Amino acid sequence: MTSSLLPVSEALTRLLSRATPVVTCEQLPLRDAAGRVLSADVAARLTQPPFHSSAMDGYALRAEDAPAVGAEFSVIGESAAGHGFAGSVGKGEAVRIFTGAPVPEGADTVLIQEDAERLDGNRIRTTFAVAKGRHIRPRGQDFAEGNVVLLAGTHLDAARLTVAAAMNHKTLAVYRRPRVAIIATGDELVSPGEVPQPSQIIASNTFGISALIEAAGGEVLDLGIVPDRAPLIEASIRRAVDEGADVLVTLGGASVGDHDLVQKALVAQGMELDFWRIAMRPGKPLMVGSLGAMQVLGLPGNPVASLVCGLLFLEPLVAKLAHRTLENRRGDAVAAVPLSANDHRQDYLRATLSRDHEGRLMATPFAKQDSSMMKIFADSDCLIVRPPHAPDLPAGAPCPILLLRPF
Hints:
18% of the residues lie in helices and 30% in strands. The protein has helices spanning 8-17, 158-166, 205-215, 230-242, 262-268, 303-321, 374-379; strands spanning 25-29, 42-43, 53-54, 58-61, 72-79, 93-97, 109-112, 116-119, 123-126, 136-137, 148-150, 171-175, 179-185, 189-190, 201-202, 219-226, 247-251, 272-275, 280-281, 287-291, 294-299, 330-335, 346-355, 361-365, 382-386, 398-403. Strand 8 (116-119) and strand 9 (123-126) form a beta hairpin. Helix 1 packs parallel to helix 6 (303-321), helix 3 (205-215) runs parallel beside helix 6 and helix 4 (230-242) packs across helix 5 (262-268). The chain is elongated, with a radius of gyration of 31 Å.
């Protein structure tokens, strides 16, 4: 444990070094597996396509029977998806075929319907050169039975769920989502929709932090608002342990003031405190520790500071536990206005993004950066990162950013 201000990078490294990805697995129906991570390889249970199939609407025939344009054929039947032609194709014969239908035995090419002239008496004439194998999808072109198509550790998105279904899997083995318990503390807090009394405010942090957790692959266990009473806080901590939380997130009360009881309650329950002060703005009073196997992350009660710390620390922690790889939020822009020199804490300035006439990404910080102002955060596209002791930065100079949303 240390009482000095830790650099952001060192704090993140120490936090993630303690994190071990979840190893517990569960079997889920395909419909419920979106966004999850495979815990085992997935092999095909059949061959796809299971037969030579037509890639186009047209006529299945033998290429050797059409050595030149103008060859004529007798149409002896039809092959449609789900209703293949039962016979075989002989010399001078063709079968009307539709996309996805089995190619009849004996046929080795498909003449598309635009290249066939229909004649009387169920006959056609070719109007384009015929080549063997054209417009036919060979059996097993996509995958063969037994092929391992999806590897353990794969994040299941729309395309991967589709191929899993095509391989005839009804369920998939995935890693359990890490459980993240959230406790919001403070006598001043009331839930949205309630009428706050004098000296009370609406508890908003839980909702943004929950969204971050779920987007990173976690499952939220909301333990509600807990008053500033040590026994009640300790009871909520025990509940998080009893319900198998992998991470406990506390919102507010993690500092060491007279009314900040969370850290004391956690230590009383056996938490090993690693660190709790970070050289950053907003968000200096960030608490990190462990209670048995449960990681503990104490976020500031200030809404903006809570979200900034959530983006920097909680999001990557949950993603690691969930076997997920986060999209990189880091980027580079150009300062649209001059930025003043920075002190010993790393600053995260809420800013909007735009493009100048040269197509450069321009970052414009809001004039007011008070960490209680959530509307500014909601209107921001990014955070401008100002490293410790950064000198004055003139307008037009490059500056690193963290994207809050795609731009």
